Amino acid sequence: MSEPGFTVDIYQNEYLAEGGRDVNAVVTVATAGTASAAPAPGASSAEIIIVDCSGSMNAPPSKMAEARAATAAAVDVIRDGVAFAVIAGTHQATAIFPPDGGLAVADEQTRESAKRAVAGLRPGGGTAIGQWLWLAHRIFTSHPAQLRHAILLTDGKDEHESPEDLGTAISLCEGVFSCDCRGVGTDWEVAELRRISTALLGSVDIVPDPAGLAADFSDMMAAAMGKQVADVALRVWTPQHASIQFVKQVAPAVEDLTGRRADAGPQVGDYPTGAWGTGESRDYHLGVQVAAAGAVGQEMLAARVSLVATSPAGAEVLGQGLVKAIWTDEEALSTRIDQHVAHYTGQEELAQVIQEGLEARKQGDEETATAKLGRAVALAHQSGNEDTAKLLAKVVDVVDAATGTVSLKKKVDDADEMALDTRSVKTVRTKR
Amino acid sequence: MTAGGPAGTGARPAAVCFACGEPVGAADSFCEACGAELAPLSVSDGRGAGGPPGCESCSSSRISADGYCESCGRKVRSGRDHQEADLGLVAGVTDRGLRHQRNEDAMALGTASTTAGPAVVAVVCDGVSSSARPDEASLAAAQAAAGVLLAEVRAGRDLLAAAPAAVSAAAAAVAGLGRPAGLLGDPPSSTFVSAVLTSEAAIVCWLGDSRAYWLAAGPGSAAQQLTRDDSVAEELVAAGLLSEADALASAQGHVVTRWIGADLANPEPHVMRFEPPGPGALLLCSDGLWNYQPTAAKLADLALPAALTDPLGAARTLTSFAIDAGGMDNVTVVLAPFPVSADPMPRRGQQ
């Protein structure tokens, strides 16, 4: 397959004060080209659309109608030659296209057949999302596609199975396919869908109005069609006895990858980043604590960060950057904070205080909620994260954005609160 | 001491092979009679013998292509960061120090066997930091000058005249580096101090603030600084404006007033002849050492008596002293014991 060129850039202050052991760096990974570049002809792709058909999709009836329309719109975007399927999800999972429970190869005729099958979807039954994932896994693994991606739509809570059942299904699917999750309306659980999207390296978002579904589905499918390299990992080498404090994706959204490490040899671990298309750029924040501080003037390699494409054939290094530590007793050097590191440290805190603030609000702890959401308003203001600032303004009345002086709104729309929750992880980039 | 007149006084002793005693040509690399390799220049050019070194911190032998230990991550000293040379009659150490990212000092050492006895050639250069490519300037200057001095010694020529000729060769080599397009700063420049030490005397030549000291071993014969810096500090002291300590501490104190570089057409080096009054050692060093200890007697206390029998060990001691004292600058220390004793098999080596 023709691969886009990857670049890896490291932003850090490599100077540490005497005795310092903590090294922070922002790793920017980018692919060349434009986002809408022609698809790679050689990459084999498979797509599954999973549509919630539980009884609640009938309330209001337009919800099911919009879901059908959105699925049809997504099917229209599937490129010729891509293997695809559609699953209807209730308390069980049903392959509605192709009817044999496998994958169809997209062309004009199969897309039309799929849309006819989708048009026949009717709501009825419960919700067991783990079942849906099981079936998607079975269908994907019946086909040797390199790029596997699913879109999952639900409108309600995962009521007809235990959280453990869902957890088992998620673990099964991890590393097999990626999944973008969408919640329509306000009766679904943000934490539940985030659990899936995080594990399966996808996005999660709310579509408050069913009318917005079709455009969203088309966009998601178009982005999936642009992927060219599957299973790219951040491979991090660290010195002996060093500990990795964290590895987080910080742009376009915060995703903690620390627990996702897979050992790839002595002192080397792989952190999954999923699939990449052309014209993409993502930032990662890496924290390493080295075992012992060096003498003043000494230089150490604190981490070697490589981007590798992993496949059964082996690992191919796509790019590399070095995170260094140089000990100095010049305070002017060691106290300087890299602006990228500072910026993303702020964005991570922003996501955290929003989630903590909303949780406190739910628990009725107004004092904590006010403090946390006030801090969030100040951070969003300082960093120029206007989207998040707007979402915050629907939950709190802002007295002074700069200082984060706010009061909680007495009445908050459920959709606004859920939108703030799901989108709290979205970050803005530094002004370079 | 063998037959023949003292070097540099008109007599022209032919160079002889250290191994078999047969005459050899001044420019020969090998003895035509026995095939022994005639001691070539030992230059701190970063091309040490042997394979890649291991890690100094954890002893791992796995070093990545970009110079880091694959086990503990330490940057492995490489190239010119730390170099040692031991020719028996003379030894030297040059080190990056703690603060600078590279070593802009250079040294070139050589020995020659003449019918007047063995002789030592040593050059220490310190690239001027404000100039372009100072590391290349110092290396080019040291190598070129030492090559001329060694040939002149082997040819038995006048050593007082050889010194300026060596400076001219060094200046030509530095000027030949040119200034890379787009690079700001002065053209490549370097300080310079050279010495030819024979059984009779030391011929010392310098420009800038790299120094030569006589470290006396015997009682009653005082150690002394042989060179006088070409620096703003020296001028301030000479004019009676500041004490030496205050002058060195002043902002412009370390600015050199003479140097080797394309922007100084006729460098006019200082040349002096010094006859050691007794046993001791000749020390050449860059300011990375003397910044921490400028006093000759104190330097002698640090280097002696080890320098008389183990010049490499003593050079390491002085280098460590400067690094332990702060290592603010690159450090280069060259020591040659006196009398220059014939050493049947000069040791050579670099790390």
Can you tell me the overall shape of chain A? Answer: globular
Strand order in the largest sheet of chain B: 1-4-5-7-8-12
Radius of gyration of chain A, CA atoms, in whole angstroms: 23 Å
Whole-number total of structural domains of chain B:
1
Mean pLDDT of chain A: 92
Structural class of chain B: alpha+beta
Largest sheet composition of chain B: 6 strands, antiparallel
The quaternary structure here is heterodimer
CATH fold-level label of the largest domain in chain A: Rossmann fold
Summarize this, please?
The complex is a heterodimer of chains A (432) and B (351). In chain A, 32% of the residues lie in helices and 32% in strands.
Chart the SSEs and their pairings.
The complex is a heterodimer of chains A (432) and B (351).
Chain A: E1 6-11, E2 15-17, E3 22-31, E4 45-52, H1 62-77, E5 83-89, E6 93-97, E7 104-105, H2 108-119, H3 129-141, E8 147-154, H4 163-173, E9 178-184, H5 190-199, E10 204-207, H6 213-225, E11 227-237, E12 243-251, E13 255-256, E14 262-263, E15 268-277, E16 281-289, E17 299-311, E18 314-328, H7 331-334, H8 339-362, H9 366-383, H10 386-393, E19 396-400, E20 405-408, H11 414-423
Chain B: E1 42-43, E2 82-86, E3 91-95, E4 105-114, E5 117-126, H1 134-155, H2 159-175, E6 189-190, E7 192-197, E8 202-207, E9 211-216, E10 224-225, H3 232-238, H4 244-249, E11 260-261, E12 270-274, E13 280-285, H5 287-290, H6 296-303, H7 306-309, H8 311-324, E14 331-338
Antiparallel strand pairs in B: 1-4, 2-3, 3-14, 4-5, 5-7, 6-11, 7-8, 8-12, 9-10, 9-13, 13-14
